[in-house]
Structure formats: C-alpha cells, structure tokens
Amino acid sequence: PSVTDRLAWLVRRARRPPRLRLLTNTGAALDPGTVAALREAIPTLRVQLMYGLTECKRTTIMPPDGDLERPGSSGRALPGTEVVAVDEDGTRLPPGEVGQFVVRGPHVMAGYWRRPELTAERFPRADGLFPELRTGDYGWLDEDGYLYFSGRRDDLYKERGFRVSATEVEAAARRVAEVAEAAVLTPGPRTGGRAVLVAVTPLDPADLLDRMRGFIEEYKIPRRCVPVAALPTNGNGKVDRRALADLVDAGAGAGAGAGGRDGTRARTRTEAGADDSVTTDRKG
Q: Which one of 126, 205, 220, 226 counts the least CB within 10 Å of its CB?
C-alpha cells in the first residue's frame, strides 16, 4: 500500500498518464480511495487484488477489476488451496464471521528452519499429515468463498466492546480529501489504553474525526487524533510503529520530533511551526 500511495501521488503530478496496464497487490489492504484515484488518472489500468504471505505466497486471487463487483475482497482460493476462518479453538466458522485465516495446500511451506517450537505453533499437522498455516491474519469469507481481510492479530483491538480493525480505520481516514497518510496506534500502555489516530493533514484533529463519520461506523472512530508532518517509516517503507509512538509521546509532551530506527525523521505540527494543538480528545 505504501508503494501504491506513492504511485498515486506521482501520477497526480504527471503531465500525462503512464502506460500502465495492470496493478497487483498482495500485502495489506489497499485504500479504495487510492485505487479509485489511480483508475481515474490511468484509463488503461486494471487492478488485481490478492491475498498471501511469505509462508505460502499467493492464497487467493481476484479477477482483474473484480473488486468493482465485490469491494473489499481479495478473491477466491487458488485451485488445490483451502483457506478457512477459525475461532480461537480452531473451529471452522460459517460465512460472514471473523476469525483467523488457516491455509492448506501444496504451496504452504513445511516450517521454519531450525525453529521447531515456532513451526509447531504456526504449522500444526492436519490429521497428522499435512501442515496447515495459522496465518495470524483475521477476516472472513462469504458464501461464495471470497476472502475479506480485516487485519493482523495485532491490528485488531476492542473499542467500546466492539472488535475494530486498525487497517479499516486508517483507510477511512485516508478517504478524507485533506489526509495524505494515516496510521493507528492500537490501545496499550503507551496510548493510555485507547486507540490513537495519527495523520498527516492540515485539518484540525476534531474536524478530521468528524469527517470520518461518513466513511466508518461511529464506534470505530478513535477518540484521540494527533496530526504530524510525516509518518516515520522503516527500511521497507512501512510505518515504524515504535517510532510513531515515540513521536506521539514527544508531541504530546514537549512538542519535539522523534526519529525512526532507520533514521527517518518525522515532525509533529508543533515542531513544524503550526499554531494548532498536536492532540485532541473527542467528547462523547
């Protein structure tokens, strides 16, 4: 998604659309707004969404532009591959219920090199024969077998008694026109037990949270929002969550910035010279 966001940013500034035929994605969920912007800017572009991870590569594949008919889906399982959603006890869940994805198939690797304990945890043997991968990813499948990704185990949290996906909240924030980037810090000791939305935006925090109501359910909107000048990233271009928490702490305290592990520096808007406050708490 970070690469796709940068591509959309570059395309918007290009004098003429690039000759791009197909865009594929198999990492985290793509922001619908980003995909729509790319389609508008590149008339020849088709988008093909997939789901997979290192331990099994591709698991499900959507037909090109299939997301237009089934928004949010990453497609159906490849031939010879089985993917199901299970509860905490490993029981298969019916269509529509959120659980952990478990994958079986010839492309699932046998385990981790010289890590027998981790292999036993992530690759239990079904019927004592075939390894099945406990992905750590959560989501659901519809009645036709189409997969819908909700988030990683550490991306899901409880908000006011409901399960919330940080990925979904971030996507909703990015759909607000004035938001360039967004990331969610899930509830924990460093966030006071509450989710925190961090966004690169000129908007007032309360205004941003209010605008998100048109894109996501009210109970999923974090009560705290922190605007920053940039999100810290690691060497892979992904958001550095630890550095982001440091940045939020510094901004809330002394208004100072924080550097990521790879040396990337991000500044709060206070450090950048903005007049408005760094954080806000929503009422209600």
A: 126
- Homologous superfamily (CATH) of 160-271 is ANL, C-terminal domain (3.30.300.30)
Which of 239, 243, 246, 252 lies closest to 281 in space, CA to CA?
252
- Per the structure block, which two tokens stand in for 128? 């004592």
Per-residue pLDDT, 222: 95
CA distance 214 to 148: 21
Handedness of CA 31, 196, 199, 267 (dihedral sign): negative
Global model pTM greater than 0.90: no
What's the topology of domain 2-154?
Rossmann fold (3.40.50)
**Residue reference for tokens 């000791």:** 189
Q: Using CA atoms, how far apart are residues 94 and 141, in angstroms rounded to an integer?
A: 8
Residue 272 is predicted with a pLDDT of 41
Segments of the chain assigned to CATH 3.40.50.12780: 2-154
8 A C-beta contact, residue 70 and residue 117:
no
